[in-house]
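Here is a protein:
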Amino acid sequence: MKSDLHHWATWREIHQQPDVWDAWGDALDVTGLRAWIAAQTFDEVWFCGAGTSAYIGDILAAQLPGTRSVPSTDLVSRPQHLLRAKRPLVVSFGRSGNSTESIGTLDALDALAPDAPRLHITCNGDGALATRAPAKVVLLPDACHDAGFAMTSSFSTMLLTALALFDALCDAPSRFTALASQLRQLFADFKTAPVPQRAVYVGTGPLAFAAREAALKVMELSAGQIPALWDSTLGFRHGPKSFVLPGTDINIFLSGEHPASRYETDLIAELGQQFPEARITAIGPGGDVEIPMPFGPAWAAPLVIATAQINGVIWSDTLGLNVDDPFAGQGTLSRVVSGVQLYPVAS
C-alpha cells in the first residue's frame, strides 16, 4: 500500500478502526444500556438514519428478529403513515447528528409519538442527536467523528455498538478486540485491485446490506467515476447482472452459513464462466480474501466493508481526486447533508 496515503484523513480513519474498537469495547456500558432498553415499553425496535447510517439499520434488521430498518428519509417524508398507532423504540444513528433528516425525525416524533423511547448513537457531542432531549444518548469516541467525507470508523463503531446492545449478550470487550485483531491482519495482507470501470458488491442477509455500503463507499470516494452496484447473492441474477461489462470488479461477500454459502459458490462459478474478463473476488470464510466469521456475518460486516474502504481510497487517489472531499468544487454533495426544507408535522 502507498505510504503517502496517510496524508488523507480518510485513510487514517480507516486504519484507526482497530484501536477505536479495542478502547470502545472496554468503555461501552453494555450492561447499563441493555438494562435501560429492557426497562422501556415499545412495540418494536426501529433503526433510523440516512445514507450510511440507514444502512447500519438495514444490516441490523437483517440480523435481529423483532427489529425494523426505518430510514429517516422515509420517516420524515411519511411520518403519519409510519407512526400511526405505533410505539417504537427509535434508535437513531448519525455521525454528525445534525443532518436535516435527523432533525426532522425528532420533530416527527415530538408531534406524533412523543412518548416513544429514543436511543441516539452518535459521534458528535455538539449535534442534535447528542443534545436534544428526551433521549438516551450513546456518544462514541471523538475519533469516530470522521473528518473525511466518507463515513468509515463512524459507520463501523456505530454498527458494533448496536450489535452489542441488541444482539445476543456477549463479552463485548473480548469480541471487539477479536474483531480489531482480524482487521489489523486484513490491513496487513490486503492487496488492492487496479481501478475498475465498474464495481459490484453482493452478499446474503446482513451482508447484502454490507454490499450496499461497500458500493456507496466506492461511488462516494470516486465522485461517481466508478459506478457501483449492490444486490443480494440470489437477487443479482434477476436483471442487475446486466450491469457487468468487461473490466468490472465483482466482489462476493461470503457468509459462511448454510445454505447461503452454496448459492454464493454457485454464483462465483457462474460469473467466472460468463464474464471471463471481469475480476471476481470472494471475500469471507475460505475466500480469496480470507475473513473468518466466528460471530456471524453481521458482526463481520465492518471487516468485509473495509475492503471497499481501502480500495475506494486508493482508487480515489489514483484518479487524482481529493480523497477527503471528492466533490470539492462541485457543490453537489457535502459531508453533512443540509439545505433540505423541513415541513411541519401535524400532531
The mean pLDDT is 96.
